[in-house]
Write a structure and sequence with these properties.
Layout: E1 6-10, H1 17-28, E2 32-33, H2 41-48, H3 55-71, E3 77-80, H4 86-95, E4 100-105, H5 108-117, H6 128-134, E5 144-148, H7 153-165
Parallel strand pairs: 1-3, 1-4, 2-3, 4-5
Length: 168
């Protein structure tokens, strides 16, 4: 990628956004922003209690991420954001038109297993079904790539870097 892009690392909970995001940012030589840090406290409280967020809960969060991405236009950056629905990605693109997406995708069993082993995260495994039910994978007209989450973080990052380099 000749001009640094702003990359949104997306996917359901447990796919490794918080692990792969910083690795990808380091590989691309750009800053990383943790999408969860953009959530207002009320959203974190809802998710911690096992209550899925509504679209109305998500709009301010998506706007904050979009604003960060807009500020990185031409400079590059990587931000994690579930971006499960097309409407969420459209909202991010409205704020930051040049963003590209890396969809971390994988088998539900693998993702649930990884979620059950992580510590200190507010998202309970119980919300995984609602995440998969909400997920609308990238469509052909959306700038981005889908990357399988099997293997080590380094292998996943290498696949993501290669796929991004092959984008037109």
């Amino acid at each position: 990628m000749s001009t640094p892009k702003v990359v949104v690392v997306m996917g359901v909970a447990g796919t490794g956004k918080t692990t792969i995001g910083p690795l990808l940012a380091a590989r691309l030589g750009v800053p990383y922003a943790e999408g969860d840090d953009f959530h207002p406290p009320a959203n974190i409280a809802k998710m911690s209690a096992g209550t899925p967020l509504t679209d109305d809960d998500r709009w301010p969060w998506l706007d904050a991420i979009g604003s960060w991405a807009h500020g990185r236009a031409g400079l590059g950056g990587v931000v994690s954001c579930s971006a499960l629905k097309r409407s969420y990605r459209d909202r991010l693109r409205a704020e930051a038109p040049g963003v590209v997406f890396v969809h971390l995708a994988g088998d539900r069993g693998l993702i649930e297993d990884r979620m059950s082993h992580r510590q200190g995260h507010f998202m309970p495994t119980a919300l995984l079904d609602s995440q998969f039910a909400t997920l609308q994978p990238l469509q052909e007209d959306e700038a981005g790539v889908s990357v399988d989450v099997s293997g080590s973080p380094e292998e996943i990052t290498a696949r993501a870097t290669k796929a991004l380099a092959e984008l037109p």
